[in-house]
Request: fold
Amino acid sequence: MAFASAKRTTAALVVTLSGAALAACGPQVHAHTRSADSASAASPSTTATGSAAASGTPSAGTSASGSVLSPSSADSSAPARQVSPSASASNPAQSPSAQPGSPSASAPSGAPLVNPSIQHGTEDGGKSVALTFDDGPDPKWTPQVLALLQQHHAKATFCEIGPNAQRYPYLTKQITEAGFRLCDHSVHHDEQQSKKSLDYNTHEIVDAQREISAAAGPGAKLWYYRAPGGDFSPAIRNIAAEHGLRPLGWTVDSNDWQRPGVPAIMKTINQELKPGGIILMHDGGGDRSQSVAALAALLDQLDAQGYTYSYPGR
Reply:
């Protein structure tokens, strides 16, 4: 009887510690940085140790390396974010899909091996731009972004967080049904991804790909993988390419996530805007009212300046 009591006490302690670990992984505000392609080469089996691109500055009192914000982080009336069991931040490598030798830890059968270099240009070239939106889908902001894009007959790519797509599959379906492209943006939005193990990186990329694909429905295609904060390494790029996802960067960082005001967002965009560029904005991860207002102004400007809308190259 004493041995059974000791086992129960040990089990209770394990559960208590596990709960504390999960509670410590709450949402944190994140910063995006311009991604830079690594000049070094590594095999797909190399542990992800490449250094990240120059880091942005997170909001005061927050970390740029934490988990992704709930899509409703600025909407207190929305339900709390639910994360799938495979997305547990306490030990993602324990997910079956992250284990070496499992079906999703290797390239899917018949999947094309795409270029593993980071894409920084448009598919069409010329005086075109590619609009990209990160961290959604979000039930408040994504529909507003979609409405503006459709009014201007503009193309766009949506870089989704896996659990967000899983939580709002109808929004992911609306994106694909409108003819827009999908991009994998990881499970946890971990901007320190490149410093972690191959199994962890496989989990972040492949499990998110599965969640977004399931939300989009049969026949939907994911085209790209954008590392959170542009935190690419050779290993991360290779994992993405092996699963048919072109690593996706940007040339124009609007810094809209900082909410500096619409004029400041537009000034930042225009300082970096050039034909053939990829513009980074957000439709999720917090209050995106300024992003939506800036997008409306940007679309009017691009139309007036004779720009066309393209997708990032593959």
Remarks:
- The mean pLDDT is 75.
- The beta strands are 128-136, 156-160, 181-184, 222-225, 246-247, 252-253, 277-282, 308-309.
